[in-house]
Amino acid sequence: MKPLVAPSILAADFANMQRDIEMLNNSEADWIHVDVMDGVFVPNISFGFPVISAVKKYATKPLDVHLMIVDPDRYLKAFKDAGADGIMVHYEACTHLHRTIQVIKDLGCRAGVALNPHTNVRLLEDVIADVEQVCIMSVNPGFGGQKFISNTYKKIRELRTLAELHNPNLFIEIDGGVDVSNASKLIEAGANVLVAGSSVFSADNQLAAISALKNAQPLKHA
Length: 222
Description:
globular, about 20% strand, eight-stranded parallel beta sheet, alpha/beta
């Protein structure tokens, strides 16, 4: 199966957001990735509810909302109401992760958990059967355009092994430094959702950049 592609609008042109959303609507992208940052959990501030609502107004593809915020439980319903189709919270930000996951599912959203680069995937063993997706951060969260962390491949393989035991249909999403140079290796390791920001929106041909990720093939070994 081809991977899902979720371009991150953190790298879009904020002054022309409607134009960029309509480009994604007409592309081979599957989801629209929305990074929400609070300036506390990560050292940056991005989108709030009004922006997400504005994006939802024009988007014809699901919004994959990634909460990089402290105490996300306070805002889950508000993000659903703003237009989130999927909501991911960080393992590191949730004291009662199982309860948070259940609230997201009760809201009717796809429930996901994101892991920072230092967080071991085995910590998800007791909740992996309850989520639809896990996002492995392949950069330190907070800013786009960072260098890909090579240890990510090992984490993907470990997560895929865990998923095969408890949740074979799990979406394994990779966020950070994803482009055509590593897409095939990520898929080979077990990823099936590719988040790409800078490599899409800085491309001369954005539709072609999305298509190249969508049609990436696992590496073949001799």
